[in-house]
Structure formats: C-alpha cells, structure tokens
Amino acid sequence: MKKIITAVLLMTLLLSACGSQGSAAYNQAMKEGFDAVTAGNYDQAVTAFEKALADKKADRRATALLEETRVLKSAEESLNKGNWNKAIYSADTVINQTNVDQTVLTKAQTIKNEALKEKQGQAAQNRASQPAADGSSGSDSGSSVQGDGQTAGNSGQPGSSGSSTVSGSSQSGSTVQQATQKEAEMAVVKAAGYSLDQVYTDTTDNGAYYSIELRENHKNDSAADPNTAPAIGFFRYYKATGKIAQLDLISNQYKDIK
After folding, report:
1. Which residues contact 123 (CB under 8 A, 6 or more apart)?
2. Do residues 62 and 30 make contact, with C-beta atoms less than 8 angstroms apart?
3. Largest interatomic CA distance in the chain
4. 123-159 burial, b if ≥16 CB within 10 A, otherwise e?
5. Tens digit of pLDDT for each residue in 81-133?
6. Handedness of CA 120, 121, 122, 127 (dihedral sign)
C-alpha cells in the first residue's frame, strides 16, 4: 500500500513540475513577444507568439496577439511603401478589435496617425502644385492624390465618388468614364452591404479596374470626417467583367466577392 501511495505522489510531483515548466516557457515567450512589439520588431514578435502557442495550444490570448501582430506588420510595411490608405485600414483593423492589448493598440494608433499625417501632407502638396484652372482649357479639376501617389477622386462627401469634372465644353468620352465609375462605386457599396449614404468612397482608375476604398459615414463622431472615419475595406471593380474583389489583409491578396 505504501508503495502505491509513494508512486502516486511521485507521479503528481512530476506532472506538477512539467506543468510549471510549460507555464514558464509560455510566460517567457509572451514576454518576448510584448518586448518585440514595443520595439517595433514584428517578425520577432510573431515568432515569440508562435512559440507561446506551441507551449500552450489554442491559447486565446496568444492567438489574438499573433494575428494582431501580423496585421501591425502589414500596416507598417504599407506605411514604409507610402501606401497611406492601406496602412490606415490595417491599423484600424487592430484598433477596432475588442479587448486589444494596450501595447498593440498604441502601436496601431501610432501607425495610423503617421499615415494620416503623410496622406494629408501629400494632398496639400499636390493642391499647391496644381496650376490655376482655366475655364477654357478643358483640364480636369478637383482631383486629389492618394497615399500611393495615384490620382483619384476623394469625395469628402457621403456616397460621392469625387470624380473629376471637365471644365469648358462637355466631352463624350469623359461622360462615359464618369458614368462607369459611378456604376462601379454603386456596385461595390451594394456588395459590401451598405448604401451610398452610409459610406465615403475614394476611387482610382487603374485602367482595367477601379480601386475603391470604402469608409464609414456617421454623424456626430469621428466617422463624420472622411480622413478619420473607420475603413470598411479596399475593393476592385473590373470593368470588363463587372467582378468585384476585396483585399484580404492576412494574405494581402484580393479575393472575389461577386
């Protein structure tokens, strides 16, 4: 009987020791992950959170931090490439999550603020470089430049495409282009599950397709300003087929939704 009791006690001690070692490894990995996020080393943070998950499988906190860190990495890469809109969208994805760790939230807000600052600075620079419009010149007016350096219509008004208008006499080719852009925006808004009065649109003509960013439009909160409104997503409307694709942040690929 004494031998049985002794064996049970030894087994209990061994299991307790293994559990303590596993917990210590998990805690160490989580600490390394947070330290790496604080330092802005997102590759190292991803590795650390993956290690934490290996030590404590299906842990919700480590899983959430791993995904949020991957999005932070994508946001910073977009910021460094001058793709302000995508950086803002990625940062918003983290900011709008519930129960986000303060370290991760601070980093996301910093990236978003920097992207907004750069985007607004570039838009101001573009406006300053625009020559005064001549009523008889037939040149486009009212266009703005996105963070990726492409000319696009930024509405600032709910449901508006912000497309360029032609001064002077009307040109048939321009009329067709504007109608097609409006049609694309309406189709994308509908596919995203919104109505035109619920969103801001920012559209770029890329030849074979329109790049369309959607942002929420509310009243009496931050979403009343198109520059700070929460992003809904980035979409492409393909002119030849009418197909619509949405950017998936995790894979960084556009996936068909219609």
Report:
1. 144, 145, 154
2. yes
3. 106
4. beeeeeeeeeeeeeeeebeebbbbbbeeebbbbeebb
5. 988 888 888 888 888 888 888 889 899 989 999 988 888 887 777 777 766 54
6. positive
Residue with tokens 């709008």: 96
Rg of the chain taking only CA atoms, in angstroms: 25
Give, rounded to a whole angstrom, the gap between the first and last alpha carbons of the chain. 71
Q: pLDDT digit string (tens) for 166-201?
A: 333 334 444 444 448 888 999 999 998 988 888 888
Q: CB–CB of 53/63 below 8 Å? A: yes
Taking a C-beta distance cutoff of 8 angstroms, is the pair 248, 235 a contact? no
Tokens of 157: 């008004």
216-219: which pairs have CB atoms within 8 A and are 24 or more residues apart? Answer: 217/158, 217/159
